From TrEMBL:
Keywords, sorted A to Z: DNA-binding
Highest taxon above the source species: Bacteria
Protein name: TetR/AcrR family transcriptional regulator
Domain HTH tetR-type: 10-70
DNA-binding region: 33-52
């Protein structure tokens, strides 16, 4: 097992990810072999397998790391799910999708679905983390928060993804204006029922 903190390990993983990114620009994911990645990264196949189980594990890490690197500190540290936080998540997701789908060759529906699912799960985690800290929207049931976060993440992702094909190019302000009210209304706290009458 490799030591993940070793600078040489970090450097090798970076070389592998860069090689993978460059290959994705020119080839479909299914057509990329471990040999291709290893050659581009100037390592041997055994070194690749010391770091990743297969190219799917690499794709998963590549997708998650590239997305998480773009998350502003304001979102990571948010204690409330505000309009501004919602806007940032919408824009972040849209910009990431544009870059990932336009720069990388994601012609395979199965791989596109894999990436879509991964991003939805990351959004769910981010939203859940914020909602658990948000006293205005916190629910007594952790499972309910998880479900609400999954629905909210899917809504943001679905809208940002659809904007690529049905939206007005470059009008991300309009995207935000459409999506934010939908998301924020769905997260509005439920009215608290009055206590039962004792009379």
């Amino acid at each position: 097992m490799v030591n993940q903190e070793d600078p040489r390990v970090l450097r090798t993983r970076q070389l592998i990810r860069e090689a993978f990114r460059n290959l994705l620009r020119n080839k479909e994911f299914e057509a990329i072999s471990i040999k291709d990645i290893a050659q581009r990264a100037t390592i041997n196949r055994a070194t690749f397998y010391a770091h990743y189980e297969d190219k799917y594990a690499l794709l998963e890490e590549f997708t998650e790391q590239a997305f998480r690197e773009r998350i502003p500190a304001q979102v990571v540290n948010a204690k409330e799910f505000t309009d501004e936080i919602c806007d940032q998540l919408i824009l972040l997701t849209h910009h990431y999708i544009v870059e990932f789908y336009q720069i990388c060759r994601m012609d395979s529906k199965s791989i596109a679905a894999f990436v879509d699912d991964k991003l939805k799960r990351i959004l769910q985690q981010i939203i859940e983390s914020i909602l658990l800290k948000d006293v205005n929207r916190r629910t007594a049931n952790r499972q309910h928060t998880k479900i609400i976060s999954a629905m909210t993440g899917s809504a943001i992702y679905g809208a940002a993804h659809s904007w690529l094909t049905v939206g007005e190019s470059g009008r991300t302000d309009l995207l935000v204006d459409i999506v934010r009210p939908y998301v924020m209304n769905s997260l509005a706290p439920l009215p608290t029922a009055p206590p039962p009458s004792t009379q």
